[in-house]
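Inverse folding, one chain.
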């Protein structure tokens, strides 16, 4: 399996097998990176401009609707993913659930920053699937979300992202605890009731 610079596993053999379409890809098959970040790689931007900004993975007509299917098919055959041919490919998931056990995020809506105000950590953590190899700079950012419990298991053992597992009981308990807390915060209490309760507590 792929490993981090610290030698811990990332839980997959091929990060591209878990990559969606490129974050820079527009709905009409154009490369937003070449248009918006010309100064970062002028040569790449010129090449894309000459091709009417078509994505390097798109077909001759600029259609990229089958890009994900092609990526999965080539991964199954142990062939190089078409996304790997683009120097600026980036895939960051937006699905707010654990890619391993399916636990859904449940943030405390009344708290702007759980980690600093309530002391609560988010249930889900971003997990990088690609890292630099042999001293090379990492070229592609490929991330998914894992719950804290699966994240620890993947990094601390041989757990895989593809394991067929249910959410950890502790994870379910914490999520339900958050729901209960949120429901209690949504309860209505008049100022008179609060004042009376405060007086009784004294």
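Residues assigned per position:
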């Amino acid at each position: 399996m792929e490993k981090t610079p610290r030698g811990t596993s990332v839980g997959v053999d091929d990060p591209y097998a878990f990559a969606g379409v490129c974050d820079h890809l527009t709905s009409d098959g154009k490369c937003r990176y070449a248009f918006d970040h010309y100064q970062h790689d002028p040569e790449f931007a010129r090449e894309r401009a000459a091709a009417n900004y078509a994505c390097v993975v798109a077909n001759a007509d600029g259609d990229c609707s089958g890009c994900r299917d092609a990526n999965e098919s080539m991964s199954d055959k142990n062939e190089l993913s078409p996304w790997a041919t683009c120097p600026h490919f980036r895939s960051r998931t937006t699905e707010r659930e654990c890619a391993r056990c399916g636990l859904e995020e449940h943030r405390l809506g009344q708290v702007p920053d759980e980690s600093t105000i309530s002391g609560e950590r988010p249930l889900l953590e971003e997990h990088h699937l690609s890292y630099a190899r042999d001293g090379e700079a990492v070229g592609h950012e490929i991330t998914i979300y894992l719950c804290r419990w699966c994240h620890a298991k993947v990094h601390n053992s041989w757990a895989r992202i593809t394991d067929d597992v249910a959410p950890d009981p502790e994870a379910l308990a914490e999520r339900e605890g958050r729901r209960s807390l949120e429901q209690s915060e949504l309860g209505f209490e008049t100022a008179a009731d609060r004042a009376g309760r405060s007086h009784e507590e004294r």
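The two ends are 60 Å apart (CA to CA). Residues 73-78, 111-118 have pLDDT under 50 and may be disordered.
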